[in-house]
Amino acid sequence: MPATSVEANEAPKILVVDDNAENLSLAKATLEDEDFRVVLAKSGEEGVAAFERERPDCVLLDVRMPGMDGFAVCKRIRELPFGAETPIVFLTALRDVDTFDRALRAGGDDFLTKPVRPTELLVRVQAALKLRRMSGELRETYDLVRRQRDDLMRLQLQKERLTSFVVHDLKNPVNSMDLHAQLLLRDSSLSPAARESVQHIRAEARALLRLVLNLLDISKSEEGELRPRLAPVDLDALTAEVLDALELRARADEITFERSLEARTVQADADLLRRVLENLVENALRHAPPSSVVEIASRTRDGAVEITVRDAGPGVAPEMREKIFERFAQLEGGERVVNRAGRGLGLTFCKLAVEAHGGTITVEDAHPGALFRIRLPQPST
Fold first, then answer.
1. Predicted structure pTM score
2. Could you give phi then psi for residue 173, rounded to 5 degrees?
């Protein structure tokens, strides 16, 4: 049997099969940086022919392709000489249980969801090549671990699908609650006490809707689908809308709002930016002491618009300023209470939404309190 490239101590040869030119270019650049030899194929049929001709040491295979899809390519490769022993890693934007199970049934060794991070791609390819060289006993152990991993992956995908269904189903009743609250507020015969109760109902319904939308957008971000629609946004009007929506919450603790807007417009997705500011102001209200001030400010600096939200509550310890944006973070730090993640998703959403704009979000000491700073790069005029 002729020696493979790995057995001949040559650089491993990787076959990448994908109908998307950008994906091919990214995989090629990533792998060649680590001295792999790369063979590219733009279709399933071309991929099978390249496998027979090149005898690669590993195959990276896209699932969705016109003509012969990834599952069919995998089955065909497994039928070819040396195809049964060649690791095949599926790449797909379809993060669901059905796709995962089909990939395993077709004979795939591993499964990566797009957008694929270069570091993760390299780790998976290196692991696949090491598996090929394992002894029989080690391979049996690996197969056991892989089955356990596959079971965990399947459970995770099922949980994500269930979460998605629940979140979508929550949107309609929450919107209905808000609508009926608005209708009640139009009733002039409503007593002041009843009116205030309805206002509280509406405020909580809107907070719940923000949570639902945060979940949806975090899911979109994980799938590479969170794409801002940029347009000029009037910061004066947007911040007024945000503060008006949270006025009732602020009034309960006698907290006042201040605005200091040097930059009056910004290129951004208005809906995403509004919800980022709502989450940050709500977070500030949760931690601001009674009778204090929460401030929103903006300015233009170095080709970007900076927006800050500041409160006078307990600050965030320096060692916690990255962790605070992690999902479901619940952080505590001595005298400086840093449990500012609230329901655990608001600040995570803020980070993902700002980064989708190509911007950054940080938290600093406000002396006293915390200051959240958003930087949104602006197109040159």
1. 0.54
2. -65, -35
